[in-house]
Specification:
This protein is an alpha+beta fold. The protein has helices at residues 4-12, 19-29, 34-40, 44-54, 135-171, and strands at residues 55-66, 83-92, 98-105, 110-115, 119-129. The protein is built from 5 helices and 5 strands, in the order H-H-H-H-E-E-E-E-E-H. Strands 4-3-2-1-5 form a 5-stranded antiparallel β-sheet. Helix 1 packs across helix 2 (19-29). It is elongated, with a radius of gyration of 25 Å.
Length: 172
């Protein structure tokens, strides 16, 4: 599956980064997200848009998008030309120059190194979520508001019925 971005997000947030866990993050972002989870993957601008919409603050995590064909022994599903992993640390040569990155791949549940020249982009994720949480949390808040409004309307209807009964009794 082309769900490596969603698995990275789930891993960073401490959630379930299995296939179904990744799907829940994709669906929370876009309820019609089957296009993201089932084969289309996330293009770089869409990943950046998601990160910008969801996170703020100083960088806490980096996600690295890289070319898997430049990583010896790396295989990818289908005809994927990029892959996304969570950055862990720099690998430096004896001169102190960064030559590779140690990464964690939630999709494959393993750590490995990728060469510096395989990196296509590094996406920074802030240490705070915007709007106090995810779209799933926002949907839950909206559902709660709707329930409270419906309960308020029911109470107002009950009060109106009681007022009519009092008026009818006093006129009776």
């Amino acid at each position: 599956q082309d769900d490596c971005f969603w698995r990275c997000i789930a891993y960073i947030e401490g959630g379930d980064y299995s296939e179904s866990g990744a799907e829940s993050y994709a669906d929370a972002y876009d309820p019609e997200a089957g296009r993201y989870f089932n084969g289309a993957g996330m293009k770089n601008p869409e990943m950046k848009e998601y990160i910008n919409q969801m996170y703020t603050g100083s960088t806490q995590h980096n996600i690295i998008q890289y070319d898997p064909t430049k990583v010896p022994g790396m295989s990818t599903a289908g005809n994927t030309t990029t892959h996304v992993v969570v950055f862990k640390e720099d690998v430096k040569n004896s001169n102190g120059e960064v030559i590779a990155f140690k990464v964690y791949d939630p999709q494959q549940s393993k750590s490995y190194e990728i060469p510096f020249d395989s990196v296509m982009d590094i996406l920074s994720i802030g240490n705070e979520k915007k709007n106090n949480g995810s779209f799933m949390e926002a949907a839950t808040v909206m559902e709660t508001v709707v329930v409270v409004i419906m309960q308020t309307v029911a109470i107002m209807e009950t009060v109106a019925i009681m007022e009519v009964a009092v008026i009818m009794a006093s006129n009776g």
